[in-house]
Amino acid sequence: MKNSKLYQYVNKNAAAFGLFIAILSVSTAAIFIRLAQQNLPSLVIATNRLVLAMLFLAPFSIPKVLKEKHLITKGDYSLLILSGVLLGFHFASWVTSLEYTNVVSSTVLVTTSPVWVTLFSPLVLKERLPKTFTIGLIIAVAGILIVSFSNACAFSVGGLQCSLEGNMLGQEALKGNFLALVGAWCASAYMMCGRKVRGHLSNQSYSFIVYTIAALTLLTISLSSHQPLLQVHGTDWIWLVMLALIPQIVGHSLLNWALGKLPAAYVSLSLLGEPPGSALLAYIFLSEKPTLLQIIGSVVIIYGIFRANKPQRRQVEAEVEITP
Questions:
Q1: pLDDT at 323 over 50
Q2: Cα separations (Å) of 108 from 263, 312, 317?
Q3: How many CA atoms within 13 Å lie on the side-chain side of 155?
Q4: For residue 156, what is the enclosing H or E element?
Q5: How confident is the model at residue 283 (pLDDT cuts 50, 70, 90)?
Q6: Helix (H, G, I), strand (E, B) or coil at 153
Q7: I need a surface site. Which of 4, 89, 115, 244 has the fewest CB within 10 A?
Q8: Which residues in 238-269 are b (16+ Cβ under 10 Å) and which e?
Q9: Could you give phi then psi for residue 288, rounded to 5 degrees?
Q10: Which is higher by pLDDT, 201 or 212?
Q11: Which stretches of 68-112 are DSSP H helices?
């Protein structure tokens, strides 16, 4: 079986397939959050998301963590704590950003993490980035800029017209965009920390430990600010449970798994596929119709991802450890 062509193909492309499923899963997060925000504060949503994910994983993950406890070094403890705290702040800032700006702008800005990871990975993680990746990143960032200014600019009979009074640059939207950017910074640092630990710790153990620390971080923030954590009723529980199961346990856990097989910059770049996915879901479920510029920008982003991850087998296999 292990010598079959099908097994070898799946094994060789497992990381890419895992990332694809991860992006589909995390793209649903903004939709569930917007639905839950109709009745719940943002911190309540972020906190319950992580607490529920931790509780769902606990029965399966605690035995695994105890079994691998000897693999965790003294340096790992500080990285795990830092990863969890950063993840908690990532969700707190990004979920709150959706109160002030639209789904596309928020998800586009929060997924600028590849820019920051690319800037610091060579210094922090000693990961070399091929030229193809850099070109793809530049293309994807161009798409990010197009989508970012899509609410301030529009096509008309006279051509492209931009207004500084557009929603993108309004006071409320500006606050939301900044919070989404803070979320991107936290996510970038979280990925670089995770890349260092995931090399010798299983995905299940790493994910559970980090989710637990993130949940405790959010609980501390919510309790200190007197958030109504248990005042959740009716269908709001459905959105919170879906948030914990699909984008968190499936999506983020697959991203953590990919960090053990691919450089952090590759994993974070793949997150640029989230804005187009979220935009499509927002159009279907929230009636948020994307503008022409948002569609163009999304296509550019997807092409950038494709270009950056264009198969260069010799170069990739030299840098990435492929395990069964």
A1: no
A2: 21, 27, 30
A3: 7
A4: strand 153-156
A5: confident
A6: strand
A7: 4
A8: ebbbbbbbbbbbbbbbbbbbbbbbbbbbbbbb
A9: -90, 95
A10: 212
A11: 74-97, 103-110
Mean pLDDT, rounded, for 278-289: 84
d(CA 324, CA 312): 20
- Global pTM reads 0.77
Half-sphere exposure of 169 (CA within 13 A, CB side): 9
Given a contact cutoff of 8 angstroms between Cβ atoms, the answer to whether 108 and 262 are in contact is no
The H-or-E segment that residue 154 falls in is strand 153-156
Distance in angstroms (rounded) separating the CA atoms of residues 161 and 67: 60
Please provide residue 159's backbone torsions phi and psi, each rounded to the nearest 5 degrees.
110, -160
Cα separation of 136 and 148, whole Å?
Answer: 18
Determine the pLDDT at residue 316.
40
Q: By C-alpha distance, which of 253, 236, 229, 191 is closest to 56?
A: 253
Residues 199 and 203: their CA atoms lie apart, in Å, by: 9
Angle at 28 between CA 23 and CA 31, to 5 degrees: 150
Residue 61: exposure state from Cβ atoms within 10 A (0-12, 13-18, ≥19): buried
DSSP H helix total and E strand total for the chain: 16, 2
Two tokens, residue 4: 């079959």
Residue 205 and residue 133 in contact, taking contact as beta carbons nearer than 8 Å: no
pLDDT grade, residue 214 (50/70/90)?
very high
Distance CA 200, CA 120 (A): 22
322 pLDDT tier (thresholds 50, 70, 90): very low
